[in-house]
Amino acid sequence: xxxxxxxxxxxxxxxxxxxRWGHQAAGVPVCGAMDTWxxxxxxxxxxxxxxxATIEITVGDFxxxxxxxxxxxxxxxxxxxxxxxxxxxxxxxxxxxxxxRLVTARARRGVRAYxxxxxxxxxxxxxxxxxxxxxxxxxGVDGRALRAGDEVPIGSPANDAQQAEPASRDRLVxxxxxxxxxxxxxxxxxxxxVPGHAPLVARLMSCDWTVTxxxxxxxxxLDGAPGAVRVTDVLTMPTAMGSVQLPPSSQPILLMADRQxxxxxxQPAAVITADLPVAxxxxxxxxxxxxxxxxxxxxxxxxxxxxxxxxASRAPRS
Amino acid sequence: MLVExxxxxxxxxxxxxxxxxxxLERRRPPGVRDxxxxxxxxxxxxxxxxxxxxxxxxxxSALAEGAAGDAGPxxxxxxxxxxxYGGTNGPDLASVAAWAGITEAQVVTRHVGRTYRVFxxxxxxxxxxxGVVDPTIAMPRHxxxxxxxxxxxVGIAGPQTGIYPVETPGGWRVIGRAACxxxxxxxxxxxxxxxxxxxxxxPVDAADARMGGIATP
Lengths: 318, 217
What we know:
The complex is a heterodimer of chains A (318) and B (217). Chain A has 318 residues and is an alpha+beta fold. Helix content of chain A is 13%, strand content 33%. Chain A contains four helices and 18 strands. Chain A has helices at residues 36-45, 198-205, 276-280, 295-313; strands at residues 3-8, 12-16, 54-58, 63-66, 70-83, 86-96, 101-104, 109-117, 151-153, 184-191, 209-215, 219-223, 237-238, 243-246, 253-255, 262-263, 266-271, 287-293. In chain A, the strands form three sheets. In chain A, strands 1, 2, 3, 4, 5, 6, 7, 8 and 9 form a nine-stranded antiparallel beta sheet that branches. Chain A has a seven-stranded mixed β-barrel with strand order 10-17-14-15-12-11-18. A two-stranded antiparallel sheet of chain A has the order 13-16. In chain A, a hairpin with a 3-residue loop joins strand 11 (209-215) and strand 12 (219-223). Chain A starts with a strand and ends in a 5-residue tail after the last helix. With 217 residues, chain B is an alpha+beta fold. Chain B is 22% helix and 29% strand. Chain B is built from four helices and 13 strands. Chain B has helices at residues 11-26, 53-66, 93-100, 104-112, and strands spanning 2-4, 32-37, 41-46, 78-85, 116-121, 128-131, 146-149, 153-157, 160-163, 168-170, 173-178, 198-203, 214-216. The radius of gyration of chain B is 19 Å and the shape is elongated. At the A-B interface, strand 13 and helix 4 of A face strand 2 and strand 3 of B.
């Protein structure tokens, strides 16, 4: 069997794809890659279609051994790594061989990296997706984080798969969009136009927020100046990735991939799709501020991000 | 995209939500990834670059208007959920009784004495939000959730009643425990319950609480 054997999983590594869609009405969260842009880039670089599964590596310290020769890519957070005895810096595309050992250091910028292999990580799909739903215990590898000793199967490349880019150990694309440690990252939001939400939106704009350690794939708890806004709960309603909830505590929660499908806190704003990958690369201690945008800005930003993805998918030939 | 009706727990409002949801599911517009109904709102999850936003807006408005007065699909069957009430299975039964000023037995009688509507599924796979609970026993949820609520726990939170599909932290008032499986990946439809269904609870002895949900014709 073609596979990858996990030697050290690091802080949290899970198999993810573009998410489990179509079952939220049954209470099943979408899950999937937190940074779908980097997940898709990794897949494209190895010649996969973007819905195949990658491994989302959090922070780093990931080590694995491959059983067969394959094209592999590592994108997302900026981190140093070694394949065999060859050092490189993610994002990168490289070739592995039977017995090749990949070892990553810790992310220097950003927090989540995506490891794609040609053919994809071929764990069984559950409800149409290979994404890991940790709380529910299904998807990915046995519904849990990867552990040392796990053998993750790798699929056969499709016959009509794109030509993979040749192995290049050069940096492929400047990681300029990743949050910078020590700086305040701006996340653009579409704000609710419900009249009663105006003070809640104002609250979100009123200060810079710090991502607290109580943050994970379900969502980030943000800490900021104490708030004087009176917030009441709402009748339980659906949620979306990037939705910003404002609970009675007035400390916002930014909902992410493993969020519950519905919630009873007010949702006065939502991060625009183009900025979701940026949000996905935030770590506890990072600071953010929200800026309002409209649908035109949101759409233009997304079109620009897609163009960036297309450009980054075309690796320079070495 | 969010379709919002009057934010109340109401059968007619919810029926309109479900009518719009099923119309969308019957013919999914391009770019729509998921349709999620709740009590009085409906989320349409879309791919922003593939969807015709204005067209979808128009379609949703038309569907929402057309759903006025439409009671939606009428499910003919009632699902019976056997529940073992009180004791270690219902750690909050005594406090609900005290809050209501009645006996525990009377709380149980009032809980089983109604047919509930499943308004939505959310929070966890298979977790049903059902109502409307008899106002005399509709005690509000705990201020802070219990760290661990056992799987199958039947709870009350104000006008809502629900069943925890798995062990989880939870803040609802737990009055009993059901033995049925709310979510099972082996089933063709993994969630036992679906919005619009009608549910009744049946009190059983702890020893008899082994059967799954039973549908009556």
